[in-house]
Amino acid sequence: MKKTLLIITALTVAFLASCDGLPSIQTSSPSSDETSQTSSVITSYLRFKDDNVDSIELDQSVKLTVEYDVNAMVNLVFSSSQTLICSVDDEGTIKGIGIGEATITVKDTYSNLEDSINIEVIAPLPEFTSSDQIVSFIRETSVLKESSIGEISHVETSKNDYYDGTETITIKNYDGDALIRENEETYTSWGNENTSSSTDARIIQDDKYYDLTLDNTGGYSYASVYSIVDFPDGSSSQIELTEAKERVSSFNVFGDIANDIASLNKTKETIEITKETNQLVKVNGEYLNQWLGDPTKSDYETFNYSLEFKNDGTILSFTLESYTYSDDSYDLINNCLKEDATITSQTSIKVEVTNETLLPMEEMNIVPTDYFVSEIIEANYNTNNQISIGSTLSTYNFNITKYSPSTALDSEDFSIINVENEPGGQQIVEDPIWGYEAQSEGIAKVTIAMDNNPSVTYTIEITVVR
Question: Contact 116/104 with Cβ under 8 angstroms?
Answer without folding.
Answer: yes
